[in-house]
Amino acid sequence: MSNLRSIDWRFGNAKYSVPTISRLAPACSNLRELCLNQSENIDDFFITSIARNCPNLQILDVNACTSVTSISIETVALHCPGLIRLDMARCLRVKTDAVVLLAEKCAGLQLLDVSFCEITDLAFFALAEHSHELRYLNVFSCKNLTDAGLKSVGSRCVQLQHLLCGSNRVLTDFSICALACCQSLRRLSIEASNASDKTLSLLGKHCTALQALNISSCLNVTDTGISYFAKQCPTLEQINVSYCQNVTDSAIMQLVQCCPTLKELVVSGCTGVTDISLTVVAEHCAQLQALDVFACQLVSDQSLCLIGQGCPELKKVNLGHCPLVTDLSVVALAAHCSNLIQVDLAGCYQVTVDAVQMLVDSCPFLKLSLSHSARREEKFQIMMNETQRDFDAVLLGNYSNNQT
User: Fold this and answer.
1) Cα separation, 350 vs 321, whole angstroms
2) For residue 93, what is the DSSP state?
3) pTM of the model
4) Residue 201 in contact with residue 226, Cβ under 8 Å?
5) Distance CA 300, CA 359 (A)
6) pLDDT tens, residue by residue, 359-382
7) Cβ–Cβ < 8 Å for 96, 69
8) Which of 75, 121, 235, 326 has the fewest C-beta atoms lying within 10 Å of its C-beta?
């Protein structure tokens, strides 16, 4: 086993006794990659045994290994200085001091996922000081991260290409604007933060290579910020502005006109988005693959029929709880978007079983999961039996009483 370079034991596929671990670790001296994702039986003894015997370890995934503590990460830091990728998301027993030591000892670290971990700004100060090779950082829902910690990372880890720091209302423009120093950013997620138009202005000016932006639930963002950002980032491919209550048709029209290669547009919960902007989407976004207009109350067949015709590459569509959607929209998707793999029609009470049948027949890769009223159960069951397809992607709400 001395030539073994990679081990994948994710999802707890194996349960190891202490003797087994003792024999295995010394035999894997050339191990480079170890994946233990969601293996709850893995503990500090296992990790420390591996770390002490595998000094060439470069990639370690202990995501959701709930028994792993700071002891494991500190041992890895001391014995595996060549580590370049570490995923320790949801390892709630790993504390700040372990991450500080990791930053000090593994200067070549390129990927770090500490999402949901209870680490403080001190860890991020250490990363800013030592981890200048960092390319990917996930700090989603790190509740103890403040503006001071994020600002230090943004100012000094300028090679960052992917940064996910959402679900933290403590973060404001003060720190997020510092990310403008990271001009290589390709993907940025700052959802549910206090970012405003000021942040979008600076990001648009300095991070023109951005391809994916998630600002969902950023309540201080308006049409002005999105419009300016769109003009500066024409290569944008994905944007999520869901539940940004101040975003309207004006911003969406500017966005799609400036970003012709847009592939994913999420505007769920944006009550100011209507058929007006979606008609422009249909005209300009021929490469669109995913559209989410969940709970956009003013979106109707008028624009969605045009979407079906103008966006033939669509794979995922969420029309859930759009009360104005009828069979016309579903038929248009069936006629023009044969690559669909996921459609959400939950709460679309005017959509009938016949339209769904047409969609199923036209889209060979579509999987369905139907939730429907008891009085329609027999008819849906007949359709499922006849199609002999998997039903786990299209979510359908209760249907109106006038269906036949």
Assistant:
1) 11
2) B
3) 0.91
4) no
5) 18
6) 999 999 987 644 443 334 566 666
7) no
8) 235
